[in-house]
Amino acid sequence: MTVPPIPPESRHYYEDSMKLVIVYPRYKLLVLTFIIEGGVLGVALLLAGLFKIKLLPLTTNLFRDILLGTYFVSFPLSLFVFLLSERAEGIPLIGSLRKTIITDIKGIFSKTRFIDICLISILAGFAEELLFRGVIQVKLGIIATSIIFGFLHFLTPAYCIFATIMGFYIGILFYKYQSILIPIQVHVIYDFGALVYLRYFVKV
Questions:
Q1: 56 lies in a domain?
Q2: CA 170 to chain centre
Q3: pLDDT confidence of 14, banded at 50, 70, 90?
Q4: Which of 40, 50, 64, 93 is most exposed, with minimal Cβ within 10 Å?
């Protein structure tokens, strides 16, 4: 999921371990999400039309792809939970990634409600996968697409690397099974599970 940019008038702060953490007002976060992910979807449809890439149907084997998407999302979600555990705190690079997630990302989504997380996850997963896997990967390949995906999710170097690895993982699934539904499902469920866990179960 792309973290929205931060307009100065939208910034609220709380102090955590001597660090100012950005907190989004709920309605502004939702508006920014609709604008950004709507723009991503628009770009995906525009490029798909330009390059004559067929995005629909999302799958030709619905039952298989739902099972596979549900299965394959368990690995990145397990990694995410581990990253936020105290055991990961002292590991080089992972420790800084943990801090970014617990402070910056949790702060951004700290005012969201459960329904907001559902909407944000669906919008991000659908729009971003149509663009990155459905269009860009078809034209540029897995490695280039994963790098672009990582840089467009840049918060810190460690977070960029993490997003790049996630992009590569999802790209492999798309390449292997030739179904855009699997990447969409993995992305949606991952964002939903990660944000719910971060929002409601991780204490700052």
A1: yes
A2: 11
A3: very low
A4: 50
